[in-house]
Amino acid sequence: MDSSAHATPVATALRLCLHALLIGLLALVVVRAVTEGVPHGTAVVVLAAVMAALYGAGAPAPFVQPYTRAAAGWLAALGALWLALLAVSPDALWVAFPLYFLQLHLLPVRWGLPAVVVTAAAAITSFVLHGQGVTPGTFIGPLLGAAVAVATVLGYDALFRESERRRELIEELVATRAELAAAGRTAGTLAERERLAREIHDTLAQGLSSIHLLLRAAERTLPEDAPAVVHVRRAREAAQENLAEARRFVRALSPPDLEHGSLAAALSRLASRTSTPDLSVRCAVSGTPVELPTPYEVALLRTAQSALANTVRHSGARRAGITLSFMETSVSLDVVDDGRGFDPSAPRGDRGAGGHEPGGGGTDGPGTGGTEPSGGFGLPAMRARARSLGGTLSVESAPGQGTAVAVTLPLPAAVDQEDAA
Q: Is 0.70 topped by the overall pTM?
């Protein structure tokens, strides 16, 4: 009769008290039948013993669970034995009280309450049939016991449900806190990786590339038989080797989506992950792809992630598209959706749920993999990233007409082909 896997000490104590009460009352019926020599004493003892045995067998049984057929059948058998005992002994009336609790506990409310009423009526009827004096207590006693049982069980059930809701809420909060902590650690790690990659590329790699170019120019201006040619060549080769090593560091520290393929492949995977039954995202590439420096790839990927996250969270769009375009002097990325749109010229707080920058921009939504390291890019952050690479970001939108976010970056001029990786 253990109805909950999360049985509390209080619930266990209440069940033990119920068991003790029913067995104790049956024992009292037997003692009075034996000591007072009441009629049908043998029948009283036998019926009480059978009822106690049936109760002892069913109470701990795993199949006797609330709201099941097995529990209803077991309870019906107990009720039948009690009615038989009640017919031969007026003392059996007091067994009605623990039966109230069993009926309310094991039966649904729509059946438990009528069962309690029938049990109370049977107790009152037996009192009258056994020739006892009819007094107000004849009716008040069983009815008051039934009312106390109903109030106790229903009140306990309400408290138990509230406790379960609180327990589930606490478990959810603990799980959410763990997820947030893990996400924070991941975000910090990715942010530091990206920062280091950018620093290495912008300082060491660029400096070694310049040294390599200068040494190559110096080697070409020196005569072939000049003593310095050998030293210049060795210095250029050392700079080239260290430049290659710096590039390997940059690739190792770049975002995970860029570790296993090109920017176009990373954008295609992003589109696939973001697509849902309610949102179709397509990716396209135009022009002749060229290798881009890591900061360019990171900026374009992050912009696509942020724009798509806002589309998922705020636009209510059915379709979205990512287009990566390679031109002679620039590369551009367009993210377009058919969502509810917003007014880009309105103050940020007035853009509403359809805006692509509510409260400063969204974070990675479902399907982006949660790779955004810094907790999300609003439109100002996107513009700042594009501006840091000499590019621009534009937003076209209107209420009910979707949104288009476009970032354009100039291709680096006079960059050595090896450094373009």
A: no
